[in-house]
Amino acid sequence: MFTCTGYAATSAETKLAPFTFERRDPGPNDIEIEIVYCGVCHSDLHQARNEWQNTLYPCVPGHEIVGRVTRVGAEVKDFRQGDLAAVGCMVDSCRSCDSCREGLEQYCQPGFTATYNGPEQGTGANTFGGYSSHIVVDRHFVLRVPEGLDLAGVAPLLCAGVTTWSPLRRWGVGPGQKIGIVGLGGLGHMGVKLAHALGAHVVLFTTSPGKEADAKRLGADEVVISKDADAMAAQAESFDFILDTVAAQHDINAYLGLLKRDRTLVQVGAPEKPLDVNVFSVIWRRRNFAGSLIGGIAETQEMLDFCGKHGITADIEMIPISEVETAYARMQRSDVKYRFVIDMASLPKAA
What we know:
CATH superfamily of the largest domain: Medium-chain alcohol dehydrogenases, catalytic domain
Shape: globular
Helix content: 10-25%
Oligomer: single chain
CATH class of the largest domain: Alpha Beta
Number of helices: 11
Number of strands: 16
């Protein structure tokens, strides 16, 4: 065991604060990573505040991790000290169910081990995430970072990037297709970038006219203000695929009606309350309403490699870890373009 420093919430009512804890030394198949940057995901806030009613305290959030390898186990042959490495939302799974065998560990039937808030496979212990100095992870769940990318901008790819990449690839988005992205937040801005790089004609839907210029900078070919009924009507039955990234309540039927026959809308944003789907929105044109969750390890590596080839990273605001609570408050107001990333050099050396 060795001592780590981090930031933790000790209850739903307490702010994150310096925290000292123990991590295991690397086993034969483990990699130890010194964390350089960690992205801030909205789920970090949900978990720190126990908004999903499943938080294990103390809670050290963070599942968008980029760093450098400091130690490797004896059986690890493809990473060595000093290599760039990344860790996303998972650090283990059962590895034997159908989903795991297909490389879709995010759908592990017994449940994957989350990078933080556990429970750890086999022991049931809590797991501690990337708001910390180091992390030790089984090699299967460690990802290689392409050279040449801005490392801070890579961090959000481990969640926001792969959450949008997985459905874009699963539903075969590419050249010659008209693709809709609903919402221009942390997920939506990555959806626009990736769909554009895949060669699709990208239409961004937003309620905010002020986002039009930024959407086009990011790669959107068109921007539609979804509050404009005439503009929405002009897009009816013209889309090959729509990716909905909005986590607030909204009229999903307005977007289902934009799909061609037999096409699919995939929901990756997670509103607090169920969305009201009118069955005629789907049966009238045999449309599909689907969902998608992060991505498997192979998908995530594929996404990182694609981003390396195309020079894609997230648009970020860098913060010291002491400002994480301010970042949470700004996230709740949607006041960020488009993801916060913590410079882990700002972490206190001792709690």
